[in-house]
Amino acid sequence: MEDDVPAGGQDDFQRDPDAPPVALELIRADNPGPMTLQGTNTYVLRDGEESWVVDPGPLDAQHLAAIIRACGSRPVGVLVTHRHADHTDGAGTLRRQLQNRTGCEVALWAADTRAVAGARKPPASLISEAGVVGHVIHLPGHTADSLGLLVDGGRMLTGDTLLGDGSSTVISPPDGSLTEHMQSLAILRALAIDGRISSLHPGHGSPATDPLEAIDAIEAMIAHREERIAQVKEARAAGALSMDRLLRAVYGEGLDPALRGAAEDSLRAVLDHIARTR
């Protein structure tokens, strides 16, 4: 897989000028929770009779059945945006069921091929008979293997690099890196300001459905991360050196015990970022 962001705006999407736009359908898994929000967002891309699945989600029979119905008769590939189980657990089963149902050979792609049995590295672009469907972009930070997919028309599938509804993704070192995450957010910001992102479609939460909303969401997350970095620096300067004292200084006394582990991971990511960038 090539890590470079595609150069040049919508001209990168060389397609049959008479072909209709790539269709994008969201199918949300029934696995809500503190880390998954309303559930994992699975996306089905349709270009004519061909289809691709991004993030199959959990191994849930009803969810997989809904994906299969949306794929139609010519599934081409299954792409996972990163290694976490809420995005990958259904991948192998979905691939087998699609192949058995349609007789088509279905590719399975993951940047970390160890995370998904039978997966291979993704191509730089997804290609249909009509031309380019989407460009695969490396967006590390949430995990080292995190990917996004910039789909025909400027629709950006972000995986867990950027969540919806103002939620912030958890970064758990050493696999996750706030330094790399900030760089990935800068890439998304540059693409959005350049007019190459028309909407954001996250791995969890609601989409940002127009260009201005997309820019606002990216800018808000960058500002949130910068504010958290400043909070940690200020707390450490005031003598909060232990994790318990940092948690109280940054999150207050009312932190939900169910979120403590994620909060500790996020603070470790901030401390690692400060050490790397001082």
TrEMBL record:
Positions in coiled-coil regions: none
Domain Metallo-beta-lactamase: 39-204
Gene3D superfamilies xref list: Ribonuclease Z/Hydroxyacylglutathione hydrolase-like (3.60.15.10), Winged helix-like DNA-binding domain superfamily/Winged helix DNA-binding domain (1.10.10.10)
Pfam families linked to this entry: Lactamase_B
Domain of life: Bacteria
Protein name according to UniProt: MBL fold metallo-hydrolase
Native source species: Brachybacterium kimchii
Lineage, highest ranks first: Bacteria, Bacillati, Actinomycetota, Actinomycetes, Micrococcales
